[in-house]
Amino acid sequence: QVQLVESGGGLVQPGGSLRLSCAASGSIFDFNAMSWYRQAPGNQRELVAIIKSGGSTNYADSVEGRFTISRDNAKNTVYLQMNSLKPEDTAVYYCNAQYYSIMYWGQGTQVTVSS
Questions:
Q1: How many angstroms separate the Cα of 107 from the Cα of each of 44, 94, 95, 104, 115?
Q2: What 3-state DSSP class applies to 31?
Q3: Using an 8 Å Cβ cutoff, are 39 and 20 in contact?
C-alpha cells in the first residue's frame, strides 16, 4: 500500500513563499505521474501542478509562473514551491500519485494566505 505524507503547509502573508513536500513510502519512479491538487472550502478539488514520469510538467493557469513542481527520485519526494502567494491560494493541498488507473492520495496540508 502506497502512503503519501505531505508537509510544509502553514500561514503566510500575501506575496510570501512556501514549499510543500510529499514523501512517498515507495519509489516514485514507478508512478506515471505525481501531482498536487488543492481544495478550498465550498470548491471542488482542482489540479494545481503535475509532473510526469518523463519529467514534463503542467500547471493550472492560476499558478503558472508562480508555482514550481519538482521531484527527487532518490528521496521519493515531490515538492511544490509556491511563490508570490495570494489569498486565493488558500486551500488544503493534496499530493497525488498515479499508477495507470490507480490514484493514491495524501491526507492534505493546509495553506493559508492572509495578512
A1: 16, 7, 8, 10, 26
A2: coil
A3: no
- 25 backbone dihedrals φ, ψ, rounded to 5°: -75, -20
Residue (of 84, 82, 80, 85) closest to 96 by Cα position? 80
Query: Residues 11-57: pLDDT tens digits?
Result: 999 999 999 999 998 777 788 999 999 999 999 999 999 999 989 99
Return the C-alpha cell found at 43.
470548491
88: helix, coil or strand? helix
What are the distances in angstroms from CA 25 to CA 51, 57, 86, 115? Answer: 18, 22, 32, 36
DSSP letter at 9?
-
Spatial CA neighbour of 91 closest among 57, 63, 71: 63
In DSSP notation, 40-83 reads -TTS--EEEEEEETTS-EEE-TTTTTTEEEEEEGGGTEEEEEE-
